[in-house]
Design goal:
Layout lengths: L1 H13 L16 E4 L5 H17 L11 H12 L5 E5 L9 E3 L13
Antiparallel strand pairs: 1-2, 2-3
Length: 114
């Protein structure tokens, strides 16, 4: 499931190509998603560590979440120890091809008109 999740991240970038009718944005990818994908042996080792940590945790402790989604997210994080960088085209009326990191999207405040 972790490899499927990583593949979906890569697919999201591939299918984010904008239509040819969008002027300067035509043919550009709306998303850019970058992460270092580990080889199979490294991934297996990291996932083994995740399973060992969860199995060793106290069933009553906060770190003992053993539901499927929690395990999958821990596995994806373990697969990408340096994290993931996601950038998107910044919405702009003039269609400039400016990119911003997803983490900065919350910092973009719309203009307030009175």
């Amino acid at each position: 499931m972790v490899t499927t999740a990583l593949t979906l991240l890569q697919a999201a970038e591939r299918v984010s190509v904008l239509p040819d009718t969008l002027g300067d944005w035509a043919g550009q990818k709306f998303l850019k998603i970058r992460f270092a994908e580990p080889d199979r042996a490294t991934l297996d080792e990291r996932l083994g560590q995740v399973i060992d940590e969860v199995a060793a945790a106290s069933p009553r402790g906060d770190k003992a979440k053993r539901d499927g989604m929690s395990l999958l997210l821990k596995g994806v994080r373990a697969a990408m120890p340096r994290g993931v960088r996601v950038e998107m085209l910044k919405p702009d009326a003039s269609e400039r091809a400016e990119r911003i990191r997803i983490a900065q999207v919350a910092d973009v405040s719309p203009a307030v008109s009175c």
